[in-house]
Amino acid sequence: MHLRSAVLTRSRRRGYAAAVIGVIVAATTRMSLDGLFQDRSFFVIYVPVVLLAAAFGGGGPGLLATALCLGVSVFIVLGDALWSTPANLIDAAAFAILGPLIALAGERLWRNTREVANRQNQMQSILDTVPEAMIVIDERGIMQSFSAAAIRLFGWSPEEAIGRNVSLLMPEPYRSEHDRYISRYLQTGERRIIGIGRIVVGQRKDGSTFPMELAVGEARAGDGRFFTGFVRDLTERRAQERRMQDLQAELVHVSRLTAMGEMASSLAHELNQPLSAIASYMKGSVTLLAAERPDLPKLKTALDLAAGQALRAGDIIKRLREFVAKGETEHTLEDPAKLMEEASALALVGVKDRDIRVDLRLERAAGPVIVDKIQIQQVALNLIRNAIDAMADAPRRELEIVVRSEDARTIRISVTDSGPGLDPTVRDRLFQPFVTSKADGMGVGLSICRTIIDAHGGRIWAEDNIGGGAVFSFTLPRADEEGARD
User: Fold this and answer.
1) What angle do CA 10, 12, 14 make, to 5 degrees?
2) Cβ distance 267 to 321 under 8 Å?
């Protein structure tokens, strides 16, 4: 406010100075032409002085110029000729009326000019300080303004950019198609970016491209239209997202390794059975071969049984290797029933001795989902192993794994146990990192499960089981919904 007042004061001073100087110049000019005009007033020569003073400083300098012009004419230039000549009196009276009117009009013009200048200064200040690049174009796509942030982002100076088509800031094929997009909008009014925003590709002066978020607003000025675009560089954000994805993938991988470490003894026991059977069958086969007349049917049966046990062991090892492999995140079309069937087979390794009744209710016609198979199986394995651990001391051990349609858009997968139920002290924080009710737990398993499910567009939650125990459920979008979402 103080700065604006100082600017106005300086402008007024320039107006008063212009009034004084203009009167001196006009009076000198009038007196130098005295031989030509003789006793005529010729007040018209003073009109430009009033106009100039009013234009520079508004009404005050305009009135001063009017008063000085009248005073110089009456007391210095004309003298008695003013009163002796009626035409001079008429000229003086007309100028005395016209001068204040010019000053009043000049005051309004001066104030309007000041307001326009202030708006321009404010706009320039916004353009210089707004953190996002801001570009204004007309309805022909010609750039009208180019902010300081736009200069830094695109590398073009305002002198190079203003007056040129905004397609200069786009790579092909967007550059060639941009004017057609504007024409289509002006003809149809169909909005594709204006007021909506989207992620597009920009091009710098050096030819390099980068992802950017573009939001466009529209304004009308008279019969014309202007479009203001706000541009945000997404290069750093994309890099951060990639780093976060890498860290998340590493954490998920470590979680799988931790789960396998906890299951190591069970896996060793499970693998020991087929390996022991293979050894027995092979020893029997050697014995049969050593006979004087080998019993070939028995030998064939023993070898077939040994091969079956080898395939069983190989299948266990294959599932284990797929599960612990780090790999890249890859979404594929999967049958949720088959996915849970495979995950259950791995999670239930070594639990036959715990007297657990397992009930698989898998809706085969639930429909496919687009998921990272290993990550979803990791969620399932974590929930199933937690349920098994929760029932370690329960008198009744019943595990139910369900896959069913939630609604037309989602599939619901649930793991229900008959254990002691959810711990009231942690139930509201179950899916937060480092929260656990296990004495030897780290509290990251359920947090990772939530991260995986959220990334797949689903949700995960826990609730009490009506018959005792807990129910952990999560949803996944059906394949068609997932495709539409992408």
Assistant:
1) 70
2) no
Cis peptide preceding 433, ω within 30 of 0: no
pTM: 0.42
Residue 122 and residue 19 in contact, taking contact as beta carbons nearer than 8 Å: no
Pairing of strands 224-233, 398-405: unpaired
Residue 385 contacts residue 446 (beta carbons within 8 Å): no
Largest CA distance in the chain: 163
Contact criterion met (CB below 8 Å) for 49 and 23: yes
CA–centroid distance for 379 within its chain: 28
Query: Are the C-beta atoms of residues 411 and 369 closer than 8 Å to each other?
Result: yes
Determine the residue type at 110. Answer: W
Return d(Cα 404, Cα 181) in angstroms, integer: 46
* Residue 137, token pair as written in the block: 């174009």
What are the tokens at 166? Answer: 């905004």
| DSSP label at residue 123 | H
DSSP string covering 355-376, please?
T-EEEEEE-TTS--EEE-HHHH
Handedness of CA 26, 31, 37, 39 (dihedral sign): positive
Rg (CA), the chain: 44
- Which phi and psi angles does 227 have, rounded to 5°? -125, 130
pLDDT in tens, 447-482: 778 888 888 899 999 999 888 899 999 999 998 644
Give the model's confidence band at 485: pLDDT under 50 very low, under 70 low, under 90 confident, else very high: very low
Chain centroid to Cα 220, Å, comes to: 28
Contact 413, 400 (CB under 8 A): no
Alpha-carbon distances of 96 from 69, 70, 441, rounded to whole Å: 9, 7, 97
Query: Which residue type, as a one-letter code, is found at position 124?
Result: Q
350-400: pLDDT as tens digits: 666 678 888 999 998 888 999 888 788 888 888 988 898 888 888 888 999
Q: What is the DSSP letter of 194?
A: B
Token digits of residue 461: 């939650």
The whole-number average pLDDT for the span 428-443 is 61
Cα–Cα nearest to 250, from 440, 451, 436: 451
Helix axes 235-262, 373-390, angle to 10 degrees: 40
Residue type, 264: A
pLDDT tens, residue by residue, 233-259: 887 666 666 666 665 566 566 665 665
What is the pLDDT at residue 473? 94
Are the beta carbons of 267 and 189 closer than 8 angstroms? no
